[in-house]
TrEMBL record:
It comes from marine metagenome. This is Aminotransferase class I/classII large domain-containing protein. Pfam families: Aminotran_1_2. InterPro entries: Aminotransferase_I/II_large, HistidinolP_aminotransfase, PyrdxlP-dep_Trfase, PyrdxlP-dep_Trfase_major, PyrdxlP-dep_Trfase_small. Residues 8-245 form the Aminotransferase class I/classII large domain.
């Protein structure tokens, strides 16, 4: 009798890294298996500091999460009041709308032109009750990007109380010269939040590790809403060691 083994199937829609994780990450995981009886760090401080060093940031500006879905969950669940709204692209990462539905949040869908975010439509939809705009850049699933000029137009055109969240899960695959330097833009725009992941380029999708970069007051809020021991020990050591493997 044949068994239906889901672990042997490849879901093309999930854009998993076909090359797998770094050898350094795999060795680190194997070396940690014997210590699985020990709890991981309460809030992933070691990886937080490592990421801050890599990105030339202060650790207080980095939040480490169990994949970007945890960060998105925290944002939509806790940062949007019932009388406020979220704007997302009509063709965007499905988790945004699913989480908004779970938490009964109001969603406005911005139109897309040639599968690209229509910046003017985003600004038309935005008002003083718009708490958050989430843009995946590159866009998932269409692969299109918005330029730095377009992102600045959005940042200049929305209320300062509106959080502009840029999901850069695929940033390492971008070769566009006009792609935004979002971390540099954060120096001017305190309402800009950037999310990145270890799932794609680092091949750690099964371990669930992501990180968010924002002003220190917002990062404090993220950690206030995160459950303790959110990221398991194997995921943390894999991510920590994958960062240093440039091959």
């Amino acid at each position: 009798m044949k068994t239906n083994n889901l672990y042997n199937k490849i879901a093309l829609s999930q854009n998993e890294n076909a090359y797998g994780p770094s050898p350094k990450a795999k060795l680190a995981v194997l070396a940690t298996v014997e210590r699985m009886n020990r709890y991981p760090e309460y809030h992933s401080k070691t990886l937080q500091i490592k990421l801050a060093d890599k990105l030339n940031l202060n650790a207080e500006n980095v939040f480490v999460s169990a994949g970007l879905v945890e960060s998105t969950d925290i944002l939509i669940r806790n940062f949007i009041n019932n009388d406020e709204a979220l704007i997302i692209g009509e063709y965007s990462f499905v988790a945004y709308r699913l989480l908004a539905k779970v938490f009964n949040k109001k969603v406005r869908f911005s139109k897309m032109q040639d599968f690209r975010i229509d910046v003017n439509n985003v600004l038309t939809l935005c008002n003083d009750k718009t708490r958050m705009i989430i843009i995946d850049n590159p866009n998932n699933p269409t692969g299109t990007v918005i330029s730095e000029k377009e992102l600045i137009k959005i940042l200049n055109g929305v209320p300062k109380s509106t959080l502009v969240v840029i999901d850069e899960a695929y940033i390492e695959y971008v070769n566009s010269k006009n792609y935004p330097d979002s971390l540099n833009l954060q120096k001017k725009y305190s309402n800009l939040i950037v999310m990145r992941t270890f799932s794609k380029i680092y091949g750690l999708a099964g371990l669930r590790v992501g990180y968010t970069i924002a002003n220190k007051e917002l990062i404090k809020e993220f950690y206030n809403y995160q459950a303790p021991f959110s990221i398991n020990k194997l995921a943390l050591v894999a991510a920590f060691n994958a960062i240093d493997d440039n091959n």
